[in-house]
What we know:
The complex is a heterotrimer.
Chain A: H1 2-13, H2 18-21, H3 24-40, H4 45-60, H5 65-95, H6 101-135, H7 138-147, H8 152-181, H9 191-225
Helix pairs in contact in A: 3-6, 4-6, 5-6, 7-8, 8-9
Chain B: H1 10-37, H2 41-57, E1 60-61, E2 68-69, H3 74-81, H4 83-101, H5 109-133, H6 138-164, H7 173-209, H8 211-216, H9 225-234
Antiparallel strand pairs in B: 1-2
Chain C: E1 3-11, E2 17-26, E3 31-35, H1 42-49, E4 57-62, E5 65-66, H2 72-78, E6 79-82, H3 86-89, H4 95-105, H5 110-123, H6 139-151, E7 157-161, H7 169-184, E8 189-194, H8 200-203, E9 206-211, E10 214-219, H9 221-225, H10 228-233, H11 240-251, H12 263-274
Parallel strand pairs in C: 3-8, 3-9, 6-7, 7-8
Antiparallel strand pairs in C: 1-2, 1-4, 4-5, 9-10
Helix pairs in contact in C: 4-5, 4-6, 5-6
Amino acid sequence: MVKESYLMVDALAQRDNTFTRMDARVKVLLSVLALAAVVGLPGFKLPLFIFALTSALILAIRVPFKIVAGRMLPPVFLGIVVFLFMALFHQGSQVFSLEMLGLELKIYGEGLILGTTVLLRIISSVSILLCLSLTTPVHELGYALIWFHIPRVIVEILLLTYRYLFVLWDEGMRIRQAQAMRLGYPDWRNPAGWKKAVNSTSTLMAMVFIRAYDRAENTFSAMQIRGYNGDIAGQRYKKTA
Amino acid sequence: MHIQDGFLVGKWAVAWYGAASVFIAKGVYDITWRTQKVMAYKPLLGLVSAAVFFISLLPIPVPVTGTSSHPAGTPVAAILVGPFVSMVLAVVALLLQALFFAHGGLSTLGANVFSMGVVGSLTGFGVFWLGRKAGLSLGIAAFLAGVLGDLAVYLSTSFQLALGMPGIHDQSVLKAFLTFLALFMPTQLPLALLEGLVTGGMVKYIAKVRPDILIKLGVLRETDEGESQNAENQK
Amino acid sequence: MIIEVHQVQYTYSDGTKALEGVDFEIPGGQFTILLGPNGSGKTTFFKVITGLLNPEQGDIKIEGRPFREFSREELYKRIGFVFQDPNDQLFAPTVGDDVAFGPINLKLSPDEVSNRVRESLEMVGIPHLINKPVHYLSYGQKKRAAIAGVLAMKPDIIILDEPTAGLDPAGVREIMELLVKLNKKEKITILMATHDVDLVPLYADRIFILHMGHILLAGTPAEVFSQKETVRGAQLRLPRVAHLAEILAKRDHMAVAELPLTIGEARKMILANVNGDVNAYGS
Lengths: 241, 235, 283
C-alpha cells in the first residue's frame, strides 16, 4: 500500500518524457505559482482550469489510472466531507438569527459556492503536486530546492531520508515478517492480541532505529574515506568553466 | 493529522509558513553548528530521519476495531534528537508525504510543520523532560510525551483549521474549533494513546538492548544507573 | 612496502580486543587477500589501516611514511576503502552523484569531476547507470558503484571488505575479474578480505590469515596452505581441490608432490598420475 505508492510514484518520475526532461527548477517554480494562484485567488474557475490542465498532463504522460485514483481519491473524499460540512455549517451558524425560509436558502447557496471552491482547490492542488512528483525525481527536486535557497541542511537530510528509506524499509519488513511468523501480530480485536501487536510494533520500531543508528556510523566512515568535509549535497547547477 | 492542500486560505497559509520558519531556522542553525563540531552528525540525522519517517508509515493496531493507524513519530524524534532538530525532520517527512502520498501538501506545509513539527516536538520533548525531572521512568515519560504530544498536534491542527477555513467569520472561530475537535475526536484520541504506547515501548526497548545509543544522544545520562542496570539484568 | 603495519592493537570501548599486535606488510602492485573467519578482526584491521579507527598501540606506514604525517586528504588520495555493505557507502540519491562525492571534496573543477565520474563508471562497467537512483540497482551493481566511488579518488591502494559477500557465483567471478583488471591494468594495489578460501589461489599473489586478532600465517597461497593444520585451526579450510588431493594421496595412494590449489593444478596432477608420469608436473 504505502510502499507501492512510494515506489510507483518514484518509478514513474524516472521515466523519460518531455516533462521529466524539463528543468526541475522550472517545474518547482510553476508548481508553486500554480498553487499560490489556486489558494490565493478567489473563485473556482481558476482551480477548475488548473485541474483541467494538470489532468491533461497526467493523461499525456500516461500514468496508470490506479496511481492517479489512489492519490486523488482520499483528498477528494476529504474535499467532499469539507464541502458538505461547509454547506451545513454555514446554514447552521446563521439559522440561529434567521427565521425566514427564503433567506436561509440564499445562505445555503453561499455555502454551496464556498464548498465547491474549497473542493476544487483541494483537487487542483493535489493534482499540481501529483504532476510535480510524477515528473521530478526527488534528487532533482532537492537540487532545485537548494538553488532556490532552501537551507542545504534540510535538503541534505531530505536526500538521505529518501535514499535510506528504501534500505530501512526492506530491513523493517524482514523483521516484521520474522515477527509475524512467530505470531507477533495475532488478531488484535481481542485485548491480549492487541497488546502483543502493539509490543511487536514498538520493538520493530526500536530495531529499525537501532539499525539506522549503526548504519549511520558506517555511512559516515564511507564519507570520510572520500574526503567528507561537512557538505553532502554537492554542486549541481554550478556551470562548468 | 495533516491539513490538506487547498484548504487553508492564502493569508493563513503564508502566516503559518512565517511562524514555522522561525523555529525551523533555529533547528537548521543547531544542525549546522553541531555538524561543524561533529561531522558525523549530519549522516546520523539523515538515518534517524529515515527511521522516523519509516516509523510514521508503519501501521499500528487500533484495539477493538481491528483496523490500524499511523503514528506521527514526532514525539519520539523530539525525545531522541531534541525538539528543534526534530522540527527539521518533520519538514522533511511532511514534504515527502506530500509528494508521495498526497498527505498534507505544499501550501499547507507551513501550517502542518507548525502543528506537527513545532507544537508536537515542543510538547513531546517538554513532557518527557518534565517527566524525567519528576522522577518518572523512561518508558512512562516517553509514553506521556507520545500521548500529550499527539493531543497537542490534534488541538493545534483543529485550531488552524478553524482559523484558516475559507469564508469564516471571526465570531465563529471558537465554534468552528470545537466542531473540528469533535469531528476528529474519534480518530485522534485512540491515536494519541497508541502513539504514547509505541513511543514508550520503543524508547524502553532501545534502553534495554542499546543504552549506549541513548547515552550518546543525551537521552540517558551515564549516571542513570538504574536504567542501564535494569537493561543489563533483563539481558 | 606500500603498507607496513607493526604491532597494531585495537580494543573496542566495550573491552573487546579486536587486534592484538598485528604485523603486516605488503609491497605495492600486488593482489593480496586477507583470509579470516567471521569475527577475526578483518573489518577492524581495515578500519585501522585506513585511519577510520585509531589503534591504541602500533605503527602504520604508507609508502614508507608514518601515518600521522598524512593529512586526511593526502591519505584518501592514496587509499580507498570499499565497505562490505554497499548500502553503507552509497548515500547519494543517484550513482553519478555518489561517485562525484569524492572528486568534489578534492575541490576538482566541475569538468574534472564529471570526467572522473565517467571514467570510474566505465572502469567498473556501469557507465549507463550514471543517472539511476541507487535503490534501482541490483546488489552486484551497487558493489560496482561503490568501487567506482572509491576509484574516482584515483587511489594507489584499494582495500575491500568482503567484496564477494552476498553475490551469486557469476557475480563473484565478475567482481573478482574487475579487481584483477584494476590490479593489472591500472596498477592499483588490491587488498581484500574474504573467508572464501577457494577464491584465494585463483587471484592472490599473497595471502594473510588473520585469526583472533593475530596474523597467523603469511605468504604465497602455496606456502600458506601447506600449513594444513594451522589453516584448519583458524576456522578455515583448504581449497576444495587441495582437500580432494589430500584424500586421494592418503586413501588412494595417488602421488601428490605438491598440493594443488586450483582446478588447473589438480588436473595436471591427476593427468600425471593417470599417465604414470609423476615427475612431469610440479616442476
